[in-house]
């Protein structure tokens, strides 16, 4: 094969070349079929090659693809802004558009700091975040991320924002009820704010369901309500990072809606345009925008591709498609079915310690010993082995490692397009089971 000039995730490895996709299926150029069991990077929310989205993309491209946000607004971006205001809770009515989840979280970080500065407060510029979290790869976003593996190399350049643990019910201490454990974890935020000093803390950021570092970890009941109380008590903004959980993925419009909590900002990406074009955003409350409007009247953030009409038209078509086909309800219903089938695997297979998730965002954690919940060392690469075996058998599964070594286990994410049927879920489970059994056998040799 001709040499490649592209820097790929793993240098030296040969990747199959994609040909096309349809629904939950992808096909490479050799004609091999794959079930997209994780929507790529939890992105292809409504499946591949949906006609309505492709048509909207073409129609928009015929009139205008790019117009710079400092010169023009566009119908597509205005309509998308309105739609997001309808979807978002409370007074989260204003949207700042960017192109990736990292830009969205870093923009939220900047807006939080600016919000306090506009009120004459120049010390409130720290963000508190959690270990076992991922908020993006750019330096600001990585500063907020508790993704140990991704931080490692850059630690000297990063702010030490991760300060508290995320709730991890599978490994909660013995003797605490789920609710007590949730309160204990949430109260860590109060301790951290008091340690840093409330006058220094601009915001707290968290994923409603922990994704890339731990594999769909759902918080205990009451956790986010207590987080909201603590943020209010100390004048700290609460940012819900919904880049993975947003737009119906968990069976509600936003993950945080499961607990009836209204954040001050919501960041979205991935499923927002379902992978058809790069698109992400930071959704902000009326209160924050009022303060900024009265002050410098401009948010100090933005990128060349922010609010481009092409991506806005695509994202609008994705959200319209979700509404028209009641896909949020389907995500809840078929997500519960997926979780039930994964729980079946957890009951049956010694390697699977826990199946967990919310809506169509599920995870499996692999353990060495089911009774003691002893983890594999990261160097044993168990989840990577399962992912490779599933890939070989035509199923895409997403890795979820990178939390604190020896604390966060070896996990994978199952998050197919929310259009998946129960019959297709059965096929997915069959392949996954074969892959896990094959890895179990290899480990015993
Ligand atoms: N925030 C969360 C919760 C994510 O899961 C991710 C990506 O996985 C990001 C932010 C970063 O998004 P992107 O990779 O589009 O920059």
UniProtKB/TrEMBL annotation:
Single GO molecular function: pyridoxal phosphate binding
Gene3D superfamilies reported for this sequence: Aspartate Aminotransferase, domain 1, Type I PLP-dependent aspartate aminotransferase-like (Major domain)
Pfam families xrefs: Aminotran_3
Protein name: Aspartate aminotransferase family protein
NCBIfam families found in the cross-reference section: PRK06917.1 (NF005375), PRK07483.1 (NF005685)
Keyword annotations: Aminotransferase, Pyridoxal phosphate, Transferase
Family recorded in the similarity comment: Belongs to the class-III pyridoxal-phosphate-dependent aminotransferase family.
Signal sequence range: none
Organism ancestry: Bacteria, Bacillati, Bacillota, Bacilli, Bacillales
Originating species: Brevibacillus nitrificans
InterPro entries: Aminotrans_3, Aminotrans_3_PPA_site, PyrdxlP-dep_Trfase, PyrdxlP-dep_Trfase_major, PyrdxlP-dep_Trfase_small
Top-rank lineage group of the source organism: Bacteria
